[in-house]
Design goal:
The protein is α/β, with parallel strands linked by helices. The protein contains 6 helices and 7 strands, in the order ααβββαβαβαββα. The relative contact order is 0.19.
């Protein structure tokens, strides 16, 4: 026993009897905090400032899932949405149905619609292909094998979504899950701004 356990208080009782209750109280508080955090919904549609906003998009080239090449510089003339993704990222999995809806909405707009690309960030191809097979999504998937696209855009974690205008200028960055409605609204606002 320590000195504190054997020193009597003013009433002659030992302080050591209080220690188990303090430990129990701390354990209950930690467990409660864990339950609250585990059950909370992650935020959606959070934007973040970046020095890249309003500037030409960084060079972004990679291999497409179909074996072709993707080069962002060749997409000028179209609105482009880049969604950085990994197949085991829980928010990425949660937002995927929203991206399926968004892609359908943009396709319905014809030539006025934005082009959606998934940029695979640190994941195996077979896992990504299986994810898209199981969950849908028929837009192009770009493999960022050397990390140059992710580094160029400063992507720290996924999901992260970027909007590039028809002139190749970055107009938006979203650092959380997205919804189809939010992405469509943002694109409409950006189109109206010119």
């Amino acid at each position: 026993m320590s000195d504190l356990d054997t020193v009597p208080d003013a009433r002659g009782r030992r302080r050591g009897r209080l220690a188990p209750f303090v430990v129990l109280l701390v354990a209950v508080l930690v467990a409660g905090l864990f339950v609250v955090l585990a059950g909370s919904e992650p935020s959606t549609d959070e934007t973040a400032d970046t020095h890249l906003l309003g500037r030409p998009a960084p060079a972004a080239a990679g291999e497409l899932a179909d074996g072709g090449r993707f080069d962002l510089a060749r997409r000028k003339g179209s609105w482009v949405v880049l969604n950085f993704f990994t197949s085991d990222c829980v928010p990425c999995i949660q937002e995927h149905p929203e991206l399926v809806d968004f892609a359908g909405q943009q396709r319905a707009l014809g030539p006025e619609g934005a082009e959606l690309y998934t940029v695979v960030y640190d994941d195996r191809r077979e896992r990504v292909e299986q994810f898209f097979t199981d969950n849908g999504g028929d837009w192009p998937v770009v493999y960022d094998d050397d990390g140059s696209i992710s580094v160029g855009f400063g992507v720290a974690k996924v999901p992260e979504t970027w909007i590039v205008d028809p002139y190749g200028v970055i107009r938006g960055r979203i650092i959380s899950r997205v919804t189809a409605q939010y992405l469509s609204q943002q694109l409409q606002l950006l189109r109206e701004q010119g």
